[in-house]
Amino acid sequence: MILTIAKREISTLFLSPLAWIVLAVVQVLLGYMFLTQIDNFFLLQPQLLQLDNIPGVTDIVIAPLFSLAAIILLMIMPLITMRSIAEEKRNKTLTLLISSPISMTEIVLGKFLGLFFFVFILVSVLMLMPLSLFIGTAIDVGKLLSIYISMLLLLSSFAAIGLYLSSLTENQTIAAVGTFGALLMLWIIDWIGEALPGNQDVVSYLSLLQHHQTMLEGVFNTADVAYYLIFITVFLVLTIRQLDRERLL
Amino acid sequence: MPLPAVVQVENLSRFYQNHPAIKNLSFSLNAGEVLGFLGPNGAGKSTTMQILTGNLAPSEGQVTINGFDIIESPREAKRQMGYLPEHPPVYREASVDEYLKYCAQLRGINKQSMRKAIDESKQQCGLTDVGQRLIGNLSKGYQQRVGIAQTIIHNPSVIVLDEPTVGLDPIQMRDIRRLIKTLGQDHSVILSTHILSEVQATCDRVQIIQQGELIYHSSIEALNLSQVPSFTIGLNQPPTIEQLKQLDRVTRVDAIDEHHFKLFFDGESPAQAIVEQSVQQQWELFELIPDQRSLEDLFIELTQDENSDGASVDAEEAGV
Question: pTM of the prediction?
Answer without folding.
Answer: 0.84
